[in-house]
Write a structure and sequence with these properties.
Length: 125
Amino acid sequence: MSYENGSGGGGCLSALLTLLLLPYIIAIYGYALLAIMVILIIEWLQEHIQTILLYGLPVLTAVVLIKTGLVSKLYQRVMAKRLKVRVFTPSTNLYCYWCTRKLGLQSWERHGKYYCQDCYEKGRS
Ligand SMILES: [Zn+2]
């Protein structure tokens, strides 16, 4: 009964038209909203350009300085670790200053020279 109703068919047609045009309407609304937002942002920036420059630039420079400082600190730490490793590595390959025996973990230092235990005890007595 409602299928043959004229006004019902018109409503169906208008609904169909709305459905067909809905993506375009949404797109137009979206573009309009985007344009309005961009205009509002630009206006806000123009009004607050001095504030942005006054507060934004120092904050930006501080952030950059902190970041670069941290980077340099990290770099220094890495380099220190590498230097430690380089200093430590040859110390495991030390030889006795007198008998040229290879020194393991048992090395005895005297006046900046390294001796094996026997030579250390000999030089002591
Ligand atoms: Zn020795």
